[in-house]
Amino acid sequence: MSESTTNDPTTGESTTRQRGSDGEKWLSGFVSLIGLWIAVSPFVYGPAASLLWNNLLVGGAIFLLAGYNYYRLTNGYATSTGVMSLVALLALWIFISQWALGGEFAMSGLGAASTGLIWSNVVSGLIAAGLSAHIAYTGGREVPTGTAART
């Protein structure tokens, strides 16, 4: 894990910002793969008109954004907390969209999503949201030097 040290001009206290651990790097890669799965899952379970474009666009965005964070971490840069926070929000949308988008089509019988696709989105959305929120939280932490956390 690489670190950078900065001095706070107001307090004179030195803080160390962690540049990302190997765990953050691999979790970012895993979240990126979850995004890829979300994007292709409508084709695995059979296309559902209600969720096809939602999964393609949002899953593709999760794949690209989490992949970008993985790229940053493998090249020695710090975790992008903004990017991973956006990934967490997009993953929560994948979870919520089952009822927001799927409900209106399921009532009419037009392009209703299969049970497998719905459960895939629920589980994938929750896992991706939890992991990306964890990465955003741990990546944005600043640890003061000389405290118990740094010893």
From TrEMBL:
Record's keyword terms, sorted: Membrane, Transmembrane, Transmembrane helix
TM helices/strands, residue ranges: 26-45, 51-71, 83-101, 107-131
Pfam family membership, one: SPW
UniProt keyword Lipid metabolism present: no
Ranges of Polar residues composition bias in the record: 1-18
Annotated stretches, region: Disordered: 1-22
Ranges for domain SPW repeat-containing integral membrane: 26-132
InterPro entries in the cross-refs: SPW (IPR005530)
Protein name according to UniProt: SPW repeat protein
Species this chain originates from: Haloarchaeobius amylolyticus
